[in-house]
Amino acid sequence: MEQKEKVILFGRGMVYQRKKESLYRRYEVIAILDNAVKPGDPIYPSIEHREIVMNPADLGKFPDMLQDPDVPVILLSYALGDMSGQLRELGVSAKRIWFGPEIEPYNTFERMLFGNGGELIWEEGDIFYRNREHRLDMKIDPSDLEKLAESLKDTPLYPKADGILQNLPQVPLDDTYGMCRGTPVDRYYIEAFLDLQKERIGGKVMEIGDRAYTERFGGEKVTESVILHVEREAPKINQIKGDLSTGEGIEAESVDCLICTQTLPFIYDVRSAVCQIVKLLKRGGTALITAAGISQIIQYEMIHYGHFWSFTEQSMRRLFEGIAEVESVDVFTYGNVKASAAFLYGISSEELSREDLEFHDPNYQLIVAAVIRKK
Q1: By C-alpha distance, which of 146, 144, 14 is closest to 79?
Q2: Which has the closest alpha carbon to 15: 23, 7, 25?
Q3: pTM of the predicted structure, to 2 decimals
Q4: Which of 83, 103, 137, 334 could form a disulfide with 189 if both were Cys (CB 3.0 to 4.6 A apart)?
């Protein structure tokens, strides 16, 4: 196995969180410096990562680390001047100090700076941003690299918004999620999720509102199909009136699989609904759930049912993980900024390319989907 280069990381904020997986893959991290740790109180944060976490002032207690000229210190912050000044006062040489924002993966700001040949340079105690291709040479603010953006606004590096904004209408093309134009983008993701989980749809299956997905994805594996509707029982066969928020019509341990798509955002007492979902599953049963992360509000739905919540991967997971009867919670997210904008404008999934739809950006969670397994 190839031996990794040893490094010390400085900072555990947003830059660290974005880059840590890449850094641990590339390097052997022997220590993390963090001003949030009290001087004299070094800690070991986990079994997985055995590096010591300490205040920079405590570097002097580890002379091998402090004096080793072969161990770089990577600054994981935009306060590069302030942090490098701390290290210089401790005797760390400038050649050992690396600038973390230059290391991939980049966010959009870092890509603007470093994805086009730019670099950060030490010069006479100050840090400069230089880009030879665009003939840029700028001293950075010691406490905030991001302030450099203001100086770049009139350069070719700065992405202009007017080319995007000038063609955006103030009203959507279709204010019914895009249903008048084709398949709504959220439905594309919901159906992709259900197709991925279709082997779980079998036995006695309950679906909220109708049985379209039960029939489409369950097929011959379904022995009995039940519809749960909040307002009416019948006229469809095996349709019952029930309310996930109150437990009305809910029979404990009665179904093998529940398909619950785009329902939780319209239930105010969502914690009660989550408990009722787990309650109605048989032992070993599965609930397949989707909810909106990013969505428009349709007035009819809000007035008729209420529209209370949007979800994230984190909120969906925490809602179910706290229930004792739940064996496992697997959460999936779907979407990206382009697909989300298209959905808000009522542009159908057929009008987007497969590449546009399949690109996954966890920062734009258009649909949050979960597989809940009961013990």
Answers
A1: 144
A2: 23
A3: 0.86
A4: 334
